[in-house]
Amino acid sequence: QFKGINKGRKTNIIDSMLRMLEQYSSNLEDLIRERTEELEIEKQKTDKLLTQMLPPSVAEALKMGTPVEPEYFEEVTLYFSDIVGFTTISAMSEPIEVVDLLNDLYTLFDAIIGSHDVYKVETIGDAYMVASGLPKRNGNRHAGEIANMSLDILSSVGTFKMRHMPEVPVRIRIGLHSG
Predict the structure, then answer these.
(1) Where are the alpha helices (DSSP H) in 54-94?
(2) Is the peptide bond before 135 cis (omega within 30 degrees of 0)?
(3) Where is coiled-coil annotated (predicted)?
(4) C-alpha distance across the termini of the chain, in Å
(5) Angle, nearest 10°, between helix axes 142-158 and 95-113?
(6) Are 145 and 117 in contact (CB under 8 A)?
(7) Distance CA 41, CA 51 (A)
(8) Is 176 helix (H, G, I), strand (E, B) or coil?
(9) Confidence (pTM)
(10) Contact 174, 149 (CB under 8 A)
(11) What distance in Å separates the CA atoms of residue 7 and residue 133, rounded to the nearest whole number?
């Protein structure tokens, strides 16, 4: 049996066992290296997702296991919007068409907010919420930043077309609150 394992060569059993252990060890090292790389990629994805969902300071505190203390912001402006007639549009559309509509519209909105001093708080269904003055304080610029962003969004929606119903205009309802 031993000659069969060694392909007919005459070798010392100890040398053969050492060679097999070295090969096994090398295979384990390669496997550990691969798994470590996979783990690092998944960790990067998780970190990116966490920072997209939460302000960076909160995400860092959660990753380090430290408690997140609530903060008080004196000067903040909030933006809320939704799609006028969204229920009707949804009823006349396939589910994937609704997903495409929201994805296209909010990708457009996300590109616009990138050029303003604002923070996207939440999107739920057709509701879109943005704040200025938090999590980074910006003095008395918060109202102006949100107002300019709102005008840019409103302007872009005027030329926006749904893929599945290009003839139906998309209108949004916008609300602002400053305090």
Answers:
(1) 56-64, 86-91
(2) yes
(3) 14-41
(4) 84
(5) 140
(6) yes
(7) 16
(8) strand
(9) 0.68
(10) no
(11) 74
